[in-house]
Amino acid sequence: MTAIMSSFDNRGLARRISKYLLAAILCLFLSLAAGAGITAEYHLATGDILTFDFLDDAELPVTVTISSDGDAQFPLIGSVKIDGLTVTAALEKLRSEYRSREILIDPKLSLNISTFRPIFVLGEVRSPGSFPFYSGLTVEQAVGLAGGTQIAAVNASDRIVARARLRGEIEGSDAQIVYEAVYAARLVAQLKNSAKIDLKDVPEVAREFVTNLPLKGVIEVEEKILNADLAANKSQTTILSEGIVQGEGAIDILEQLVTQQKEVVDINQKDLERVSSLRKRELNTESDLSRAKNNASNEKSQLLETFATLARSRRELSEMKLQLAKLSADREKEILMQLQEREVEIKKLIATRQAAQEQILLMAAATADEANKTNITYTYEIRRNPVGGKPASLEASTLTEMLPGDVLVVAITGM
Questions:
Q1: Residue 68: how many CA atoms within 13 Å on its side-chain side?
Q2: Taking all residues of the chain, what is their mean pLDDT, rounded to a whole number?
């Protein structure tokens, strides 16, 4: 038994030693990969991925990510806010958390940055987007990650294909703008309950695109949709209006019945009083009194049923009137929302068209520049938003080193 326990102790000790070695190797690797200087001064932020470990157990390290609210989930204690802290400060805060919650008396912890938040490259680059950060990353290297500068990366054959694609985008945008413009004019006609589309109702931003164009076919299709909508709305309105008229007629009849039934109830009540008086003088039988009571009770019940029917009819009439009002309000709201969507879509299409035109002009300028052997120059701007600090905009060169979370904007200044 002693030998067996000794064997288990040796295995546990071996696992702990292996773990310490693994943690040490991991720390060394992260220090080399991330840069000891950056890690020491760097303030943790959303998107950073950390490696956390208890150094005095045999379990492997865990990976935690700082969420958008600045928290990260740690074993046994859950969510802890660590954004804005250095790795050293975060580690001290974690030790304090484990001690204050009486989970560990003397916590031996390890915390390292395994992956920094990405950098972003925008502007005149071939593949703008986000890219992983690594220590020593320069502006030139970041541009390389984004596929190089746009003009420099495009050769003559690429430009021909790109121009054809851009012209296709412009033509497609023009066609889509015309469609959206006529669509918007049709929506305005729906609001006016007009059976004809007036091109004066086209949104102002799109009027130049529909001027002097043969739009007869497009308008015919939209007017068919318009007339179908008007017919459907008219049908629904007619059905509800007829139902309201019928309901009002039924209520008039029921009110007359209530008046008549009240008279019948009064007559039966007087008859009951007369029969009761005769019965007290023993001038009639008990059957006569019972029959009078039943008649009075039945007529009262009939009056109550008529009242209930009248109340239901009034409620149904109110519901139909509400449906009629809601039908009109909902239709107007839906049309206005669609009209707003059309105007937004037109503005997007115009922006896309303008961007394509600018790219064609830029390619033409680049081609002329190459013919004249004129050098193309670029500017580099780093937009930095440090945790807890003020956003800053920095002029940079190709040799400027970037930090995690930086946004690099590449622009052309001369050709």
A1: 0
A2: 83
